[in-house]
Amino acid sequence: MLKLNPYKIGFRTLKTAVGMTLGVIICKLLGLDNYASSAILVVLCIKHTKMHSVQAIISRIVSCLLILFLGAAIFSLLGQHALVLGLIVLLFIPLTVVLNAQEGVITSCVILLHVFNAKAINGHLIINEILLLTVGLGIAFIMNLMMPSLDKKLKRYKNDIEHQITDVFTIFSNACSIRKDQLDIKFEALLFNIKKAKSLAFRDVKNHFVRNENSYYHYFDMREEQVELLKRMTHLIESISTDDPILGKISQLMTEIGSNVNSNDYTALRLHSLYEIRLSLDELPLPTTHEALNSRANIIQILNELEEYLNIKSQFGSLKLHSEI
Asked: Are the CB atoms for 175 and 237 separated by under 8 Å?
C-alpha cells in the first residue's frame, strides 16, 4: 500500500520557487537564449546554509566557465558531434576534481549542451552563457541570504533538555529516599535530543560568514558531558542496598540541583552543600557490614560524580558569558 509522507511548504521551498520565477523572468526580459536554464542554476544553488550556498556558487562559477571556454574551443576545432561531446566530458570531469569544483558538474553539462546545440560558436554565445550564469547564481545567492533565525529552535531544545535533566534529578532524589533496584530513566531519548540540538547549532554557524562558532553548540556539548556522568550515577544509586544516614542529605542536594538546572549562579552554593555532606561523612560511624560498606563506597562515588557535574557547569558559565569569552 502506498504511504504518503506528510509535508508542508518550508522556507527553502518558497525561496526555490521565487528564485526560479525571477531567474526565468529576468533572463527572458534580457532576451537571452535558453533563458529557462537559469531556473536550473537557482535550484542547484539553494542550500540549507549561507556558507554551503557560497561554496556551491563558487564551484559552479569555476566549472561552468571552464566548460564554456573548453567546449567552445574543442567544438570549434573538431565540430559539434556526439563523439566530441563525450570527449569533452571525459576531459572535463577530472579537471573539476583537480580544481575541487566537481559539485558544479551537472550545471556545467547544461552549459555544455547549450554550446553543443548552438548554431554558431561566437562572442554572442559566450556573453549569453555568462549572463545566464550571472543571473541564476546571483538570484540564488540573494535567496540564500534570507535564512530564518534558528534561535527560537535552539532555545526550545535548551529548555527541553533542561527539563529532562530536572526529571532525572527528581528520580535520583526519590531513589535516595526510597531505594529502587532499577531506575526508569530514558537516557537514549535525552542524548538523541542533545545530538539534534548540536546539529542545529552547527548549522547556525554555517549561516554566518564572520562567525565560526556557536555558544549553543558548546552548551549542548557541556550537557552531553553531564549526561554521561548522570548515567554513571544511575548505576551507583541502583547499587545502594542499605539505608545510610547520609542519603537524606544527598536526596535534598539532588532536589536542589534539579530545581536549578538552568541557573548560572547555583553551582557554588551546591558545591558548598556537597562539601558539607562530605564533612558530615567523617563524623558518621564506619559501616559494620559488607553491604553497608559497599553502599557507603557508592555514596562517596556519587558525591565525586556530582562534584564533577557541578564543576562542568561552573566552568562553562552561562550562554551569554560563554559567548563573550
From this structure: yes
> What phi and psi values does residue 32 have, to the nearest 5 degrees?
-80, 145
Output the DSSP codes for 103-155: GGHHHHHHHHHHHHH-S--SHHHHHHHHHHHHHHHHHHHHHHH-----HHHHH
CB atoms within 10 A of CB 279: 8
pLDDT tens-digit series, residues 52-71:
777 778 888 888 889 889 88
262-274 per-position pLDDT tens digit? 776 667 788 888 8
Who contacts 265 (Cβ-Cβ below 8 Å, separation ≥6)? Answer: none
Beta strands in 126-282 (DSSP E): none
Instruction: Give this prediction's pTM.
Output: 0.67
Q: 215-238 vs 187-205: helix axis angle to the nearest 10?
A: 170
pLDDT at 225: 93
Written as nine digits, the cell of 49 is: 546554509
Specify whether the CB–CB gap between 238 and 153 falls below 8 A: no
Query: Which amino acid makes up residue 32?
Result: L
Do 41 and 140 touch, CB atoms closer than 8 A?
yes
Give Cα 87 to chain centroid, integer Å.
41
Q: What is the pLDDT of residues 93-103, one digit of tens each?
A: 888 888 888 88
Asked if residue 64 lies in contact with residue 105, where contact means CB atoms within 8 angstroms, the answer is no
pLDDT value of position 325: 45
- DSSP assignment letter at 5: P
